Amino acid sequence: MRGLLLLVIGLVTGAGLGIVVAADRGLSLQGHDHGDPAQHAAGSGHDHHDHHAPRDLGAAAPDLRVEATRDPVSGWNLHLVTERFDFAPAAAGGAPVPGQGHAHLYVDGTKIARLYAPWAHLDRDAGEVRVVLTGNDHRPLQSGGRPVAVTLTLGG
Q1: Nearest CA to 133 among 110, 151, 154?
Q2: Is residue 100 classed as helix, strand or coil in its secondary structure?
Q3: Residue 142 to residues 3, 29, 41, 54, 63: CA-CA distances in angstroms?
Q4: Do 106 and 129 contact (CB within 8 A), yes or no?
Q5: What's residue 58's pLDDT?
Q6: 23, 31, 52, 71: which has the fewest C-beta neighbours closer than 10 Å?
Q7: DSSP for 119-150?
Q8: Which tens digit of pLDDT belongs to each residue from 74-95?
Q9: What is the pLDDT averaged over residues 21-37?
Q10: pLDDT given at position 3
Q11: Residue 60 in contact with residue 144, Cβ under 8 Å?
């Protein structure tokens, strides 16, 4: 019992000390605003890249098909069927690797989620759904100038 108590005290003290050191150095756990160019400028601590500029992979681009089935309880189940593409959640935000990444899910024009697996549940009855495959660096993938994306209308 004494060992467990000492472990808990050590964890709490260590975490508190880590927070104090991080705050003293001006570090935080907050993200950054992708819409603010100043946060992507040289010296800002972030790579200078454009999350919106597509990455054209030509003939090597993956294929995407989305199957939507009504969920018996609520909303829709989405199945992303891909070829030449592997979901790589651990690599999200990292360097681009051909055929690897995740998807962005939009409903009625608003991004609502990142998808790190081929299955997702959408807890809505209707709307325009768009699924876009992206690389690890969040840039949309395309082939020959056309996005690797599917748009479908659910419900209605």
Answers
A1: 151
A2: strand
A3: 56, 32, 26, 6, 10
A4: yes
A5: 87
A6: 31
A7: EEEE--SSEEEEEEEEETTSPBEEETTEESEE
A8: 999 999 999 999 999 999 999 9
A9: 41
A10: 55
A11: no
Residue 148, burial from CB neighbour count under 10 angstroms (0-12, 13-18, 19+)? buried
Map residue 21 onto helix, strand or coil.
helix
Q: Please, are residues 112 and 105 in contact by the beta-carbon 8 Å criterion? A: yes
Distance from C-alpha of 156 to C-alpha of 154, rounded to nearest angstrom: 6
CA geometry: angle 10, 27, 94, nearest 5 deg:
100
Task: Compute the distance between CA of residue 76 and CA of residue 137 in angstroms, rounded to an integer.
Answer: 28
pLDDT at 6: 52
Query: Do 110 and 130 form a contact (C-beta atoms < 8 A)?
Result: no
Pull the structure tokens for residue 56: 């054209």
Instruction: Please give the structure tokens belonging to residue 74.
Output: 């609520």
**pLDDT value of position 28:** 37
Q: Are 139 and 104 in contact (CB under 8 A)?
A: no
Distance CA(49)–CA(129), nearest Å, equals 27
